[in-house]
Amino acid sequence: MALAAPSARTFRRLTATAGTAAVALLLTGCLTDGQAQVQSELNADRQANGRTALSIQAQAQAKAQAWAEKIARDGKLSHSNLSDGITVNWCGLGENVGYGGTVAQIEDAYMASPGHRSNILNTAWNGVGVGYATGKVNGQTVIFTVHSFIQTC
What we know:
This protein is α+β, with helices and mostly antiparallel strands. The protein contains five helices and three strands. A hairpin with a 2-residue loop joins β2 (about 125-135) and β3. α1 (about 10-25) crosses α2 and α2 (about 35-50) runs parallel beside α4. The chain is globular.
C-alpha cells in the first residue's frame, strides 16, 4: 500500500516541531511532556509563519501552568489577571486559554481564531509560559492549555 505525502502544512508543522522540540529540550529541560508539546505546537505555527520560536520565561511558565491547573479544576475557561505573578520588567503581556481532545487540536483552534492567532504570531513577544492540565467538561476528560506571552523590557 502506498502512503500519501503529507500536506504542506503537516510537513511544515512536523519539521518545525522536530527542530523546536530539540531547542526546547536544550533551553528548558524541565517541561513535562504535555508542556513541551504545547510549546512545540506553538513554535511550529510561529516558525511556519516566519516568526522566531519563543523560549520559556520562568515567571510566565509558572503562571501558565498554575492557570491551566485552575481552569482544569474549574472545568471551564477563564482568563487570568495578566500581571499576577509577573514581577520582571515587562512591556506587554498576553494569554490564550483553550481546551480540547489533543494539544494539536487546541493549537489548530487557536490558529483558526483571529485573536488567538494574533497572540501566537505577535513579533513583540520574547518569551512564553505554557500550561497543560487535564480536567472534565460535561463529564468528558479534556486537555486544557495556556499560553502566557511576555515582552520583557
